[in-house]
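lol forgot to send this yesterday, sorry. struct tokens for the thing we talked abt
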């Protein structure tokens, strides 16, 4: 992707927004953060938005606000970015994995109830690559077994499930604004949203050293510094106005890929009837993905293998005692998947070049 292109397109709005923060010198919890949080509220149709320092911190703050901690278990997917499970470890709880649905690469809702114990406090579905997880059955299990639902929306800002934006379906939605995300800051940043105003207020306090700020140096909740920087908030506020248009463009590009790649010997991204995918990544699957990466590289097309080591096999999570073979669908996805270039500013000529290179690979073999 080319972030410079995106910056040039909105520089006229970004530069004055940054200058305003600099002129005011209110870098911490200043007006830029408040404005962005207010606009998140509008974007998420009434849910309350709270800025935090990153997507990883969003997950930690969410789990802390829900009281998840030592001795608790949290069910999630092994096919995701490391931070999903690491956040559970950071609050002293234990991630419990279940396999993915091979069709969507998201958590398989049918497997959740089988691992629920009296210690299970929450489930973290991840809307991976921009595709919403199948939320209805997940919410149904959560209701039945009294579990909190923390949506990991790091890759899915603006995606929706049955007409509702992801992040507003469970108790809390956690978002990353890492620069390469669909809504990316100029550094690390993130935010949480919740339709429960009291829960949002707790998160707002936790990310600011547990203080509600009405009374300085009074810390009612256990918290730490996970605040969103004002400079990042100013950038995100400008970009938030464009996110739906950028996502629409991503969907257009994805739809062209899916049209022209139909019939090639690879699995294309699923969309599902109830979900609007925002294509943070366009991920295909083929057993020959290494050869395809090499073929594309020789033609100056960058492609990336996402999460080659599933979380249950990560060295740093060895204490969880999982082994190879525990989650066959996740292991298969990790072996075979590959993201090809897709970003809103991509030109038709660039997309043509990618398409030609991919087709050539399958024609030759
Ligand atoms: C699914 C998922 N969860 C969590 C995170 C963590 O976000 P951040 O990098 O902003 O800490 C990411 C970011 O890469 C992610 O993709």
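and heres what i got for the seq, position by position
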């Amino acid at each position: 992707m080319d972030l410079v292109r995106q910056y040039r397109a909105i520089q006229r709005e970004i530069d004055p927004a940054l200058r305003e923060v600099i002129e005011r010198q209110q870098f911490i919890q200043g007006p830029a953060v408040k404005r962005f949080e207010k606009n998140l509220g509008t974007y998420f149709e009434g849910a309350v938005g709270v800025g935090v320092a990153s997507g990883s911190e969003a997950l930690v703050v969410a789990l802390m606000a829900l009281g998840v901690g030592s001795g608790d278990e949290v069910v999630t997917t092994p096919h995701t970015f490391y931070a999903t499970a690491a956040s559970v470890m950071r609050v002293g709880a234990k991630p419990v994995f279940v396999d993915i649905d091979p069709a969507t690469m998201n958590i398989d809702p049918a497997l959740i109830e089988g691992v629920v114990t009296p210690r299970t406090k929450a489930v973290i579905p991840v809307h991976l690559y921009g595709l919403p997880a199948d939320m209805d059955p997940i919410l149904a299990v959560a209701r039945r077994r009294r579990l909190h639902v923390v949506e990991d929306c790091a890759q899915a800002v603006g995606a929706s499930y049955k007409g509702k934006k992801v992040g507003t379906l469970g108790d809390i939605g956690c978002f990353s604004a890492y620069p390469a995300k669909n809504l990316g800051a100029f550094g690390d940043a993130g935010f949480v949203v919740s339709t429960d105003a009291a829960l949002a207020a707790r998160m707002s306090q936790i990310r600011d050293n547990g203080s509600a700020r009405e009374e300085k140096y009074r810390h009612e909740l256990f918290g730490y510094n996970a605040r969103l920087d004002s400079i990042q908030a100013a950038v995100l506020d400008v970009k938030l106005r464009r996110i739906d248009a950028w996502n629409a463009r991503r969907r257009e590009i994805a739809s062209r890929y899916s049209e022209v790649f139909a019939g090639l010997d690879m699995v294309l991204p699923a969309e599902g009837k109830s979900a609007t995918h925002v294509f943070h990544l366009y991920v295909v699957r083929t057993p020959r993905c290494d050869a395809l990466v090499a073929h594309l590289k020789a033609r100056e097309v960058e492609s990336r293998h996402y999460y080659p080591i599933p979380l249950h096999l990560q060295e740093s999570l060895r204490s969880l005692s999982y082994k190879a073979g525990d989650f066959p669908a996740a292991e298969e996805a990790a072996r075979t998947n590959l993201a090809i270039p897709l970003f809103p500013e991509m030109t038709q000529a660039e997309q043509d070049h990618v398409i030609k290179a991919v087709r050539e690979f399958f024609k030759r073999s």
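The first strand starts at residue 48 and ends at 52. anyway ping me if u want another try
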